[in-house]
Amino acid sequence: MKIIKVKNYDEMSDKSAEILASVVKAEPHATLGLATGSTVLGTYDRLVEMYKRGEISFADISSFNLDEYVGLGGDSDQSYVHYMRKHLFCRTDFDLKNTHLPDGAAENAEEECARYSALLAANPRRIQLLGLGSDGHIGFNEPYSPFDGTTHVAELAESTISDNSRLFERLEAVPRKAITMGIAEIMQARSILILVSGAAKAEAVRAMVNGEVNESCPASGLQRHGDVTLIVDEAAAGLL
Ligand code: GLP
Description:
Elements lengths: L1 E5 L2 H18 L4 E4 L6 H12 L9 E4 L1 E3 L10 H8 L11 E2 L8 H14 L4 E4 L21 E4 L2 H7 L12 E4 L2 H5 L3 E6 L5 H9 L17 E6 L7
Parallel strand pairs: 1-10, 2-3, 2-6, 3-5, 6-9, 9-10
Antiparallel strand pairs: 4-8, 7-8
Helix pairs in contact: 1-2
Bound molecules: 2-amino-2-deoxy-6-O-phosphono-alpha-D-glucopyranose.
């Protein structure tokens, strides 16, 4: 794992946007794996700025997101499809028909997982962007999710529900299930870029980088991937 230590959130966002932009410039038809959450917001802001300055275009880029809450569709402000449109897709020249997320509002979630998994198999990702949960989750693959798992319905850990409740009106409004790309599918990307900021993630960073490769820390599986870049700020790198 290549580790880039930076001072703070802003430097992390600068560096990650630079890496993603270099992929988009070199491969204008690339397929990207994208993530949601607060960690990647600064990266998306910078990509939007580069687009506005005419430095990059997403017109021929395709994307596949990691996950979506079960029960939430595009009409919900808390859905990840809404997040992606608001923070990246509709602020740039992404063609919405080339952007993909699991459909959280699908009538049959199991069928939706199979549909998304087949799409992923047919569309290898050039680079996968990841955040890290404070319990070591990637996507919504919580501790003890199998390393060989594909897209599935995940029960969210209590700590994840509480971490993510800041974006909902109240704790009870946070969905308890999500559709997530499985760890095996995350690992299929040619390269992986994982961003971590803040002291609350320091223990998860330690377990991911220096811990045993074990399903108790889903992100530790990344140690087995040959091309992972971790950008970590000083606070999150505190236990390395
Ligand atoms: C969320 C998402 C992940 C995200 C992670 C960290 O639950 N499912 O994709 O990377 O947890 O979120 P944040 O960046 O808001 O800390």
